[in-house]
Fold each of these.
Amino acid sequence: MDEKKELTSLDGQQVKSLVEAATLWLKTNAQLVNSLNVFPIPDGDTGSNMMMTLQSGWNEIAVTNDDNVGAVFGAVAKGALMGARGNSGVILSQFWRGIARAVEGQPILTKELYVKALNEARNTAYKGVVRPVEGTILTVLKDTAAEVEAGIDGCRTFEDVFALTVAAADRSVNRTPELLPVLKQAGVVDSGGKGLFFIFEGFLRYIRNESVTENPNQIEIKALTDMIEEESVEPGQDYEVIVDFIPTEELVLEVFYRRLEDIGVSIQVGEGDGMYRMHIHVPTENLYAPINYILSIGTVTKVAIENLMIQLDGNGQPTAAPVACTPIEPGQIGVVAVSPGEGISRVLASLGAAYIIRGGQTMNPSTEEILNAVNSLNTDKVIILPNNKNIILAANNAITHCDKRVAVIRSKNIPQGISALLQLDPEGDFDEIVEAMNESLTEVQSGEITNSVRSVDLNGVQVEEGQVIVLHNGELIIARDSVMDALKGFCERVGLENYNSMSLFYGQMISEEDAKAAVAELSALYPNVEIEVHFGGQPHYQYLISVE
């Protein structure tokens, strides 16, 4: 008889194993959770954020020998709180915080205490969100807690308890499209709720001695750290280019490698059930050659470009060129701003940002990173510009652990962040500057241009996989077959002729030559509008747009 299946209580070390299993199972399924994105944009990161948040929790207990359940859950909650990334990660950290509260000081976990823990986790998670939305991870947690409480008397062992939990979570996840119409439109379930389901399923798989590192039905691309070994950078290898893509036809690897060898060196390819990741080092003149080649044979879902030769350390390894931020004196107002790209970082710094956190979609900074940035400034008055809707909650979470006077401006994109920074007077009154920054958010129109990763009918827009799509103030508005047509479509929809200026920030997928050509064409169409172009360096998005 399997002793695990007969467990009627759990000690601290068994809880430790539960958390480990949940972490590994969520990691195994992170790409699936990422894919459950409402908008068909190539930067879904819910699974990654939840996984990294839980990983931080696991790191706190990885070497503990404590048998006390309260102590183990308390450590998980502490780690998850500091490691929380994105809205889903922050809510998940509150889940663990609630559990820790319920079991504080308890030596073992019983069925009754588990019910109490789920209920407290639900209460804590809901309290952590200003405007809770049903049809999300919160609903899944609420439904699951209620079903477990109602059915716990019928459970003899923890296998029964976790089986009940998983079934309840699954039912709730499948109901989310009925509660949140945008999910039904997009044809997906809630990604955060699905992530929570995998955590519960990890518990059950541990009890049943089932694998938590293999999923034959899951498309899996090796993590970059697993795919790419440490390597030296030689002169002539100016850029590292990484492309995730889905080939249109079966990929003949011999031909694929041969073509890439004509472009660059250090070629590596990861594969997972029809999806591929390509890594290559190229000279400057071939920067866009691998991207253009892959576009000719498939659909690009993600691109990352790194300048390898900006600066080399003593070992010949590349290091990032620092962004010169505005020095801050005690008593002045310091601004911490989040930036997705090198070029945008320099713009933010030039406008007065005192600290730049590299982040954005797919790379949301943790609560701890934001807190460290605030504490690093030599002043007790700090303003945070998240510049991404998925970072606001983590920023708000960070300031609750800070003794300084800190305000979070709800900037949801880079154009809003820039508009807010224009209101900065380091010597000004803190409350007045915060008010002016908040007011400025409504004065700018924002646009984002990227490629769709799937076909969808959303907001009345029919989108085919691979098409160029446009978001206006965060809402999908049009789909086009080319980037230039997408730019023109955005200008038409916002009525650009009625505005004074437009700024374009081009990303890693766009060359300077193409960006300047786009500006020239748009300027001819809108001669009375001042149109500027800047290198943004952001991944995933060909252009970020600001209209004022």
Note: The chain has four domains: 4-207, 234-307, 333-443, 448-547.
Amino acid sequence: MTINNEIKKLFSQKKFSEIIFLIESKFEEKPSEILNILAISRLSEQRSRETYKQALTEFEEAYLKEKNSQDGLNALINYMNATADLDDYLAFHDTSNFSKFFLDKSVKFFREAENKFGYNSKLISSGIRIFKRLNQLDTILIYYKKLYDQNDLNLQTFTSWIFFNNYKTYWKQKDYNKFTKLLDTHIPNISNEKLISQSKKKNDKIKIGFLSADINKSHSITFFLKTICNLYNKKDFELYLFLNHKIEDEGVENFKKLIDGTYNISSLSDIEAINFIRNKNIDITFDIMGLTSSNRITLFKNRVSPIQISWLGYCNTLGIKNMDYLIADPNLIYKNEIDQYSEKVLFLPNIWNCHSGFEFSRQEYPAPFLKNNYITFGSFNNFNKINSSVVKIWSNILKNIPNSKLIIKSPTKKDIDYVEHLFDINKVKESISCLPPEKEFINHLSLYQKIDIALDTFPWNGVTTSFESIWMGVPVVTMKGYNFNSRCGESINRNIKMDELIALDEDDYIKKAVNLATNKDYLTSIRKKIYNEAIISPLFNADKFSRDFFNLLKKL
């Protein structure tokens, strides 16, 4: 047996430590194929900052040796995927630009290879992973469109493409609805022969299941879901949680104390997961993931329970067969628009979700401008929501208010660098303060004491951040949208009687923010009103929300 064959045999057996030893001891000059195997083995054996660095160096060497061959292309794709994995590995734990070096090099190599090899779906998919981590939304959508035009979108890339279009202003609901319906054709139909039949036995209580990949100690979904789990009538209902993530922290442990059962299905195939949930004889299953990255949309296409509802984790239609209902409120979806959503819309009377309150001692804080002598705007939204249109409008507001500041937050330095660049183009970079994340949530909430006025993003509005802001007595200027995810701010503000802070368009958004910032008495009175109104509003009235929620389900 040749040394190359021996290495390939060990690789098939996943004996990575033996491969690393053999290659390092037998090869002085390593061919491209061997370098690929060595780098993959390193990352399979151990993931650390140092092993990523070593492996990336070897992938790069393999690519540079065979730039014009399939081996070289494979090495480059591996390099890009490993770089994306490295960025994920360092996320929230590294404030340096360690991964940025490799991300920038990936872009350079990608452009080079794209010119040489032309269209290649694996190359493009790896490129999209890189551009995502550089917050280059426009570029991401260009390459998703290329995959779409070549009819080369798999289920994962199709859902991601639709998901990221939510951030763009040019996509209206009619476009969204068109492509989600097309998505349905990409979701596999599983043969009934592989699935157990749904039980026809009637349960003594209504059994409700929630499927999520986001339940942990810090994710916002956890806190909104807790609202109803804290208050459900155990004589009428049983509640179950199906987890689609491997790691279970104290956030999951807390749910175990609240509800009737939690089950982890993250390691189950789609067939296994459907059969598992059907075996529990669940009456109503909630999808609270939608088209997010960890979605299990195939389960709902093939029906896990007699009634299936989309709620909470995704603010738009899914467009798929067998998703029966979508929970919204009259401010999110207007009655004359229900035909733009593939699901039957269930309307809660006030607001589509509710927070039971933050573990933070509430008190009315004075507006920061009283001490600072300048206005401080703020937005703690996901940086993907801060697109070029948002930056342009916010920059215009800052230019209209002398000495004003804007505070934003991001977990990574490269995100901060990117957004600062956008503000620099608009010549207001000196007015921007970018803060790193706070390890403790109480410290995060305390930052609202530094903000006079919160600015909502568009078209994808903030949700959790708006709830936080209002809890702390900080007004949120938002803009009226055209569908569910672009009207979240409208619904939130209407439910605290702040219609006057809902702008009709971009010009009105600027006008309302500037008017609020320049009229100090008006700003002070608005802050006082919000502080007093918040705690009694539908946003935080958990008792009423829970009654409305479960009464709605009883009617189904």
Note: The chain has three domains: 3-134, 209-353+544-554, 369-534.
Amino acid sequence: MKTLKFGLSTLGFAIGMATAGLSMSVSAASPTLSKEDFEKANLMYFQRCAGCHGVLRKGATGKNLEPEAMLKKGQARLEKIISYGTEGGMNNFDDIFSKEEIADIATYIQMTPPVPPEMSLTQMRSHTKEYVAPKDYPTKPLHDGNWKNFFVVIERDAGKAAIIDGDTKEIITHIDTGYAVHVIKGTEHHKVDHAKDVGRFWYTIGRDGKVNKIDLWQTPDKMLVAETKMAYDARDIAVSGDGKYVIAGGYWPPHFVIMDAETLNPLKVVSTRGYNTKGDYVNEARVAAIYTAPNESSFIVAVKETGQMLQVDYNDLDNLTITAIASAEFLHDGFFDPSGRYFQIAANASNKMVVIDTKDRELEMMIEVDSLPHPGPGANWIDEKCGPVAGTTHLGTGLVSVWGNDPINHPDQAWKLCYEVETDGPGAFIRTHETSDYVWADQLKHPEPEVQQSVQVFDKKTREIVKTIRVTEEEGKAALHMEFNDDGTEVWVSVWNRADASNPTGEIVIYDAKTLKEIKRIKGLTTPTGKFNVSNRMNHKT
């Protein structure tokens, strides 16, 4: 199949600040909406568009949507663009919004962008809730399940997280979380600091800024033990190596917040507003990826619009040591190499993979790749010619780029493209396992249902695609995001029901990792997105 190029959809899913005290500042000559229609359009924009175009509509991965430019395009043209998308740009939305909703959004983006409110530590703390007191935490699991082979699953449009037993394939519980949870992370093994009961506690971040703490040792009805709120719009979270702190990053307000991991009480807030790599001041400097450096007592914080990577020491919160490392815009998602020293992150609108040396706290390299790299949780493996390598899918083209990532033992191959694999369509996620012969890539961003519903598998040795797996053929559904079980014998693939996203009509399809044959389907899930195996994640298996 011919490779097609497409840009990033405007599906930002940033939660609506429409009711959070926004003002309707519109000049007399500008298009207008009723208060009710304005609030609806504002909510739709934040849910579907702000992730790419920004809260203030100054653009990021998506184009600038400020009134001056939008007024020149006019109502009719804007409605057409929103309905049908653009070549090499955004996807169509005529199957998501009604004609009336499209018209209202077109009018809305010609109006002055409302400025959302800020959020103080005092406000954050007012949202902190304790469902199970730390003194009442069990000292051993209160169930017989193999919790290290549990899967923590995002049910995006339901605002829930499902816990699934990887041995029995049974759904243990559905836990209420924030709106459109984007990331779930747990405690991990660390080279310097050592948390107690590694893998037990997991933390979610919703796109409404709500943080939830999950205890996998509890009975299903008590696994949600605490929650707070640190922003109106957020994307990522991480846990310190010693398990004492949780850090979460805001899209709005643009800041990161460090919380007590036991209680989720917010302790420290740091603004990320500042200057980009060109020297321009950025008010909306959003925090994208956040990770804990496996070998250092520090967090890695990616500031999307400024192109700055911040390495934040967590040993002394009163006197934070922050190293700013300039790279490229717009930083999005990333993963560590197997050594835990080098952080590999997509600067997707710059078509680069940025490599940060967390030991020396400096920019190691910027690797030129194709259109809009998006590795998701990423993938590392061994190539016979290039040695240790990593790979990424792309939102803008059907291509997997693979580069060397071992500068110590394979310096001639390090941070250079090793090879590329052409796929049928653009994708958002790539995964493998140390025991597997294969690398899996989805094709979520392709507009054709047959491609969007399929994942492709290529051989690590031959570098050739060995199978295209049609995960679903049901109308309105799409396949995305792969995860292996603890021993690498199974691959779990999510199925969204795009046409009925708010109901439990999604599923997870499980495949034999060697034969690539279907084993089982787990039904009764609502838009299952990321699936994170406890053992793999606590041991940094990417």
Note: Residues 442 and 455 are 4 Å apart (CA to CA).
Amino acid sequence: MSMFCFQCQETARNSGCTVRGVCGKMDDTARLQDLLIYLSRRIAFAAEKCSDKEKLTAGRFITKALFATITNANFDNSRISELIKEGISLKTNLSATCPDSFADVIDWNMPESEYAVRAESIGVLADSNEDIRSLKQLLILGIKGISAYSHHAEVLGYEKDEIYSFIIEALASTLKQLSADKMTEYVLRAGECATTTMALLHEANSKTYGNKELTEVDLGVRSNPGILVSGHDLLDLEELLKQTEGSGVDIYTHSEMLPAHYYPAFKKYSHFAGNYGSSWWHQDKDFHSFNGAILMTTNCIIPVKDAYKDRIYTTGMAGYPGVKHVADRTSGGQKDFSEVINRAKKSAPPVELEKGKITGGFGIEQLLAVSDKVIENVKNGSIKRFVVMAGCDGRHKEREYFTQTAEALPKDAIILTAGCAKYRYIKTVKDDINGIPRIIDAGQCNDSYSLAVIALKLKEAFGLDDVNKLPLSFDIAWYEQKAVAVLLALLHLGFKGMRLGPTLPAFVSPGVLKVLVENFGIKGTTDAESDVKAMMRGE
């Protein structure tokens, strides 16, 4: 077996990719990522006993490195190898400062040509016990999601030592011989850390760009050439908007960048045109017809087609071989998007895919401002149920379930959403309940935190002692590791009885699943009609 990866929902046969990733990841790339993950664990082990300053340095590197290994983030072997070299240097310095007795299975003096080969001994299957492997992977994959959100906050100047400290402690634990109970404890603590991290990112985004507002977003196109921005990084978008003012180039969002339109700070840019296309897996169609330059700020990039390869650019932790990369900003400076802008100027305007508008931006602050109205409509029976349908979109035909569920929910049910899963229904479910939109879009996947906070505030408003007594159901679509972090956060906050689909994670063994079912009521999705009936009954 040349590779083994089961971190995403679409993993082959819901078991694991062993030849090539369903995402398009080649076996040598998978093994380099395995090596980078193991190196991050080894850095954590060394940093655990080091000073706070050294932990900060280690934490920043680990979050960056693990972000690069998230599904559909970085396919560029050269960039991953550079991260490995940076990590080896850091590990060497930490080990010199804080020596330990750990018997490493890797000779870190190896030449770069041996990276992928050496990685075969430290991959996922290095743990032979299925339940132990499952607990370790649940923890590591959750930390990947935490790392992504932490890195986003760090970029905006927001950090918390406690986040880095937990990441280091938890990753270090995966190199120790611990009981299943102790490992489970770390998994549950990861949920607490994920909650803290998403709260920090919410604070970073809100203080930098203002509280999200209910906003109509145009789906059509203008007559100017454009740049299409995908991914999640708001600072990249802000710097690009500044650098394109007065250039005659319009800026459009794609997929998870849609919620940028909800922030007040971005509304002052007249050339911020609207949203183009749909979720990440429609890139081939969307990018081909856009005509202009494309900027991938983070995951979710898919294998790049020749039709647009000469006009797509990556930045940050995103990468793809043969695609031009915009370098990181220097301290106190901005990224230089001049090449992207110049490429856009040579392009034809986008081909129009659709017309109309979609509405979103109902974040914590805005919904709480109308909470009295919401509560009144619950008490008078106008709102019978809230259904959280946050999460990720994906290619599987089974994901039509989420469209069918949204359309089958009765008119007295409110859908709470965040993440790119919304593209399955946000353009078709447009009615309201006494002025309250039936789809409340909080924003990006990290804004699932907002939905949890809203639920907890409603619990208080209704005077309930348990959030699970609310007329609230969870029907979550998951895809990659940020969704794992969100799930662990929801478990930490006390939510039970959540549906997860379209398949349960392959990295969760039957033994670990039994624990999740017995303690938290986790269940898989079935069919839309049956699940809607069950949810409306409170099941």
Note: The chain has 17 helices and 16 strands.
